[in-house]
Every structure is written in C-alpha cells, then in structure tokens.
Amino acid sequence: MVVPKAKVPDVLQLYHSGCSGGHLGVKRTLLKIRERFYWVHCRDDVEDWCRKCTSCAAVKGPQIRSRGASKLYNVGAPWERIAIDVAGPFPESESGTKYFMVVMDYFTKWPEVFAIPNQKASTVADKLVHEVFCRFGVPLEIHSDQGRNFESQIFQETCRVMGTHKTRITSYHPQSDRMVERFIQTLERYLAKVVEKRQRDWDRHIQPFLLSYRSAVHESTSVTPAFANFGRELRLPADLITGIPPDAPRSITDYANDLRNKMNDIYEHVRQSGRQTSEKMKTRYDRKMNNKGFDEGSLVWLHNPARSKGKSPKLQAKWDGP
C-alpha cells in the first residue's frame, strides 16, 4: 500500500509508538512497515521518527551526549592510596558471613578480601584498621563510593584518628572506581564457578583465589601484585612439584641492600607502566569526547538516575526532558 505523505506520521505512530510497534529500534520498525507500506524516503522517515521519540530517549538517553576529557591520577608508592568497597549480600555461609569487603592498593594492585557478617560501618572500620593498617601501614588516601557505611561518622572518625584522607566517587558514577569494581566482578565470576550447589561455602574460596590473583601479572603494571609489593614472587603449590631455582646464600645485610635497590627499580618500572597504561586509556576515552556545550535556549536531556521511592527502579526513565 502506498502511503500519502500526510499520512506517514500516522503510520509511524502506529508501528513504532503504538501497541503495534512496541518502541522497537529502527531496523525492526522499518522491516515491519516495509512489509505493509511504501513511500519515498521511508528509511529516512523511520530513522528520524525513532531518533526523536521522547519515550525512547527518556529510557535510552540521547544519541549524542556531552562527555568531557578524563583525568590522569597516578600514585607513586605502595599503599599510598587504596580503594575500599563491599559486595553482597550473598547466601549466608556456614561461618555466618553474607558480604565480602575488598581493599586494593592502587600502586601494586594487591587485593585484600575479608568475608564479613554485615556491612555496618563499625565492622568495616574494624577490619580496615586491624587487618590492613596494622599490616601494610596507614595510607595517605582511602577512596570509596558514597555508601552509608563509608560516609558514616564512625568511618570518618576512624580516618581522622589514623590521619588518612577520605575521598569518594561522584554520585551515580561508579566508573570513577573502576579498579575495585573490576576486581569484584572477577572474584564473583570465579566464585560462581567453584561454589557448591547450596552456595554456602563461597567464603572458603576467597583466599585460594587471592593466591592466584596476587601471583598473576597485572595488565597495568606488567608485574605481579606480589612482586610489586614484596620484590619477590609467591611460591605456588605447583612450584613444590616442579621446583624453582634456589637463591644464592647471602647475609641479612647483603639481602637488605639488594632488596632496597631491587624495590627502587620495581617501583620505577611500575610507575612507568602505570603512566603508560593511564595515558593509553585516556587517549581511547578522549576519542569520544564531546564537550561542545549548549546554546542558550537549546532543548536538552538531563540524566537523572535518582530513583523515586515506591516505584520499581527498572521501570523508571533515566532521562528527563527535553
């Protein structure tokens, strides 16, 4: 059926926005219309209609978005700046834990993970002080999301007493804490592969995973977290079978001097690798930069990820406007 130009909007309304369309994309909408109708520039009209559909844009967002340049942040020494986060809840384990707490060093990429029964600020602060600060020293900065446990008075007071500076990610922008988020995803994928059917033994698999992770070369540093942290590789269970070359016997003084020189070389290597990796990531990110701004009076879409109480977050639009 040939459609007059004046009736094209009615067809587009029916087969994209109406009950016969379902707000599907350009390809599916176009195929559905072409099976039934014909008019000149049909594809162009369908693409333009789908692009300007306010209901679709309110959920998916505008096709062209403002995007500023990324900033480089490189640390210069081990345990100078750390990230902290809590994942869960998981099925309650046999030992009574439901969450795991992750602390990760930005320089060496060394992770610490602790299974905890809850994510209260007192629980998190206690683990941080006794299991991290007392083992690796107090960092200059602690970076976290804006979870209530990290923004609580207890946690803030702990940081103040220990003399460390607390920083936080931007609201609704977890990408600014990508290192620890990716580690959590890696750990969760591993746990999904090894837990039993009842899923109550997940906390028992964390420490063996850490041995594997700490002894694997990290992409951004080009060395293992263990080597960056200690100046030596960890001895693995397989090494007890295959064997590793023994070190030449040395005195404690010679060993300490050699280790100091070795660690200086390692730190410089990690700094250079981290800097190069950060610059590559920035270059890739900035290729998509679009920060031209808006003219006065322009209609815009505003990203609003805040969820309204009493409504399902999965059924709410993420964009307001135009």
Automatic annotation (TrEMBL):
EC number: 2.7.7.49
UniProt cross-references to PROSITE patterns, sorted A to Z: INTEGRASE
Enzyme class, first EC level, given as a word: transferase
Stored InterPro entries: Integrase_cat-core, Integrase_H2C2, Retrovirus_Pol_polyprotein, RNaseH-like_sf, RNaseH_sf
GO biological process, one term: DNA integration
Pfam families to which the protein is assigned, alphabetical: Integrase_H2C2, rve
Chain intervals for the UniProt region annotation (Disordered): 300-322
MF terms (GO), sorted A to Z: nucleic acid binding; RNA-directed DNA polymerase activity
Record's protein name: RNA-directed DNA polymerase
